[in-house]
Write a structure and sequence with these properties.
Helices cover 34% and strands 13% of the residues of chain A. By secondary structure, chain A is an alpha/beta fold. In chain A, the strands form two sheets. In chain A, strands 7-6-5-8-9 form a five-stranded parallel β-sheet. Classes of the chains: A alpha/beta, B alpha/beta. The interface between A and B is large, with 35 and 40 residues.
Chain lengths: 346, 427
């Protein structure tokens, strides 16, 4: 009469109406929700191109950037996204030393929660930290995962999907997409793989030496390649991952030189891919380690576009999780922010 | 000294090949007589207490060969008094405490303290494993002879690493000198350090650092030649992998003096139960796969795995309130121990094999004369209703640790009475 233990797989990211409440991982979400994020981001992309880049959708809301791990670009784009939505934003950088002073993560959380905020944007070095926080915050607070350990970085993955859609169109089923580098430690790669499969990508490939591939990674719906030349053959999209220098220490790789010789993306290697291939990188890039400057700055590269799309995508996720996305930017004066919660049901 | 009659119990005593209805008469803490059911009440014996055990199974009190009681050192998690009380209510009459307390059990004073606290509490018996190396640091031999004289039933380095294979060999040789058994939780530290989940598709998906099966099998593989060379008796505890069962089976076939156990939760949970970072399922060694679980169950059935233990590790609430990798491993397992073991009958394992694996065999491994119910034996007895269905509820736990993944599970088989040395301690 023993039950199977509850797997806790109930998706806490969704509210009772199936709308996005937290954004913790791309895993387990429907293609409708991912497409909704992309569509909403598309509507914000125009605002970001205008002279006045601000809409009052989240006026009166307080968003807290809660970063337990250093970050410049991710934190900055979240900050810009919040400001363009007219939210108040608070940056809190909590070094690991202050948590070692005795305050637990839960204590930190409850203290900041007591300041009456509406959203936490969280980065933490532990896999599962965003899940932990989302399952312990007050019910009116939304949590966005800005990177947890090696687990997930869903907004980065969605801005990558946005970049691919803008360049390759909405039908992912025709695409062959290769992700190159340190898959083992990459939260970005995991979130990309889930999102690409949910969006029905034709083929997702991962390319790395075996020391940088997670065990049983093929179960996530990818084909494994150990050599760059064969892996990027006929690819429509090549996504390069950053190689952390400390990987030489843990005996994952012999040297940067050998890595570049075998896995560095150069113009001549890129010729194996399709003629209209796009090259992406979540940044920051290591020139001469995983990518040659001629590729990073070349005509196939969309690396800088990714950064600007990042703002639109984060605006989309912020408005959707706070239930304010129903008011389109064209009629921003329709309702006061206080009544925006009610629109989630519509 | 009081006397007690257990009337009309279904007596199951695998050590003596007994399975029948019987009366058990207890006097001076020992079993005096076992007789045909419903015959002893009318013989004019002096009876202070009387238990009508109709419909209940009487088996030897459970012997748990691995339970952390957290004292000394971690009294904020639990104490010997609280955990022995919880154990006695769960039918467990003997607990073996590994040496990784704080301070470690590496000198006689700590051994005496633990035994004294257990006697003072007055519930289940507590026996101890002494540290295999000084301070569990893996560098120098502990004073094994002194620890043994103080009452330790064996030696172990718990999950702490031994600096190198030569030192491991010397500990084996020295322990063999005094006929002391060494208890190993096989774990190659360099392969498991930093890991918190089985290295497989679940850990890969969740981005958790994996612990490969080889962390266990490499440790067993390096111990086996040393056992051959030194002749030491070794007990391998908390097996988690299918390959380990095969290796132990082969070594037993080669007549090596080894035994093995598995924790009850490894027979019911797999890494799938981690779901989205369920820290209640964070254990060491990690929960593995269905393939491993099937092999572990088969190991219990065919006797390659000799014993089942609870691997009880109570924690305060905060220890599990963090992101998965930052939580402390372990399950508060005393109170789910018997029902989980009994549930193995559903996998086709007969009840005698199960009861033997939680009574007589672990008692034998620990060198104790408990775990059997013949006349003259210590009256440690567990009386349970094998048919009663109940729902496990953390709110009703007696252990200080409520860290369990089994909350809400429906169990069959409930302890009704426990006797330790003939005294009723839990009902």
């Amino acid at each position: 009469m023993v039950n199977k233990a509850s797997n806790q797989t109930a998706n806490i990211q969704l509210d009772n109406n199936g709308q996005l409440k937290h954004f913790l991982t791309t895993e387990g979400l429907s293609s409708e929700i991912l497409t909704q994020i992309l569509d909403t981001a598309e509507s914000f992309a125009n605002i970001n191109d205008q002279r006045v880049k601000k809409v009052p959708l989240l006026r009166g809301k307080t968003i807290v950037n809660l970063f337990f791990e250093a970050s410049t670009r991710t934190r900055t784009t979240f900050e810009l996204a919040a400001k363009r939505l007219s939210a108040d934003i608070l940056n809190i950088n909590i070094s690991t030393s202050s948590t070692s002073k005795g305050e637990t993560l839960l204590d930190t959380l409850q203290n900041i929660q007591a300041m009456q905020c509406d959203m936490f944007v969280v980065r933490h070095s532990d896999s599962g930290a965003a899940y932990f926080i989302a399952s312990h915050v007050a019910p009116n607070i939304s949590v966005i995962n800005a990177g947890d350990g090696s687990h997930a970085h869903p907004t980065q993955a969605m801005l990558d999907m946005f970049t691919i859609r803008r360049n390759k169109g909405a039908d992912f089923s025709r695409l062959r997409i290769a992700i190159v580098g340190d898959i083992l430690h990459s939260r970005v790669a995991r979130s990309q793989i889930h999102a690409l499969n949910i969006l029905n990508t034709g083929e997702v490939r991962v390319i790395a030496p075996r020391t940088l591939l997670p065990v049983d990674i093929e179960d996530m719906g990818v084909n494994i390649y150990n050599r760059l030349e064969t892996g990027i053959k006929d690819a429509d999209v090549v996504i390069m991952l950053r190689l952390q220098k400390e990987r030489m220490q843990g005996a994952f790789l012999p040297s940067e030189q050998e890595y570049y010789r075998l896995y560095g993306l150069t113009s001549s290697r890129l010729k194996a891919a399709r003629k209209d291939v796009i090259v992406m990188h979540p940044g920051p890039i290591n020139r001469g380690v995983e990518i040659d400057s001629s590729v990073a700055d070349g005509s196939h590269s969309v690396i800088l576009n990714q950064v600007s799309y990042g703002i639109s995508v984060r605006m989309a996720v912020m408005t959707m999780t706070l239930g304010s996305n129903q008011i389109l930017p064209e009629q921003p004066h329709a309702q006061s922010p206080a009544s925006n919660h009610g629109t989630r049901q519509s | 000294m009081t006397t007690l009659l257990i009337n009309n119990a279904h007596l199951i005593d695998p050590a003596n090949n007994v399975d029948r209805q019987a009366d058990i008469y207890i006097s001076r803490g020992k079993i005096e007589t076992i007789a045909e059911a419903n015959t002893l009440a009318s013989t004019g014996k002096e009876i202070d207490h009387h238990i009508d055990a109709s419909g209940l199974i009487a088996c030897p009190g459970l012997v748990d060969c691995c339970a952390r009681l957290r004292e000394p050192g971690d009294e904020n998690k639990a104490t010997i008094a609280t955990e022995t009380r919880a154990a006695s209510h769960a039918g467990i009459t003997t607990l073996c405490c590994p040496p990784d307390t704080d301070p470690a059990i590496d000198e006689p004073a700590v051994v005496k303290l633990i035994h004294q606290q257990a006697r003072h509490a007055g519930y289940s018996h507590v026996v101890t494993l002494g540290a295999l190396t000084a301070g569990l640091k893996g560098k120098h031999l502990s004073e094994m002879a002194a620890l043994s004289e103080a009452g330790c039933v064996g030696l172990s380095n718990a999950r702490h690493p031994i600096e190198n294979t030569l030192i491991l060999k010397r500990t084996f040789a020295y322990a063999a000198t005094f006929n002391l058994r060494v208890f190993i939780e096989p774990n190659e530290y360099s392969l498991s350090v930093g890991g918190c989940a089985h290295e497989g598709n679940v850990a890969s998906r969740l981005g958790l650092q994996g612990i490969p099966r080889s962390a266990e099998t490499v440790a067993i593989a390096s111990a086996i030649p040393l056992i051959k060379e030194t002749g030491v008796s070794v007990h391998f505890g908390r097996l988690s992998t299918a390959e380990a069962v095969t290796m132990i089976g082969r070594a037993k076939h080669d007549q090596l003096p080894i035994t093995a156990d598995v924790s009850a939760h490894q027979l019911y949970l797999t890494d799938d139960n981690l779901g989205h970072f369920n820290s209640a399922c964070h254990v060491q060694p990690p929960l593995r796969t269905q393939y491993d679980q099937d092999a572990l169950k088969q190991g219990v059935q065919n006797g390659i795995i000799d014993a089942i233990c609870s691997d009880h590790q109570p924690h305060e609430q905060d220890a599990k309130q963090a992101p998965f990798a930052s939580t402390e491993p372990g399950i508060s397992a005393l109170e789910s121990f018997l029902p989980l073991a009994l549930n193995l009958t559903r996998d086709g394992i007969d009840i005698h094999t199960i009861i033997r694996a939680i009574t007589a065999t672990p008692a034998h491994i620990l060198g104790l004369n408990y775990g059997q119910l013949a006349p003259g034996a210590v009256a440690d007895i567990c009386l349970f209703d094998a048919n009663e269905r109940w729902q496990f509820d953390t709110e009703k736990m007696l252990s200080c640790g409520r860290n369990t993944p089994f909350n809400g599970w429906h169990f069959q088989g409930k302890v009704k009475y426990t006797l330790v040395k003939g005294k009723l301690v839990g009902n």
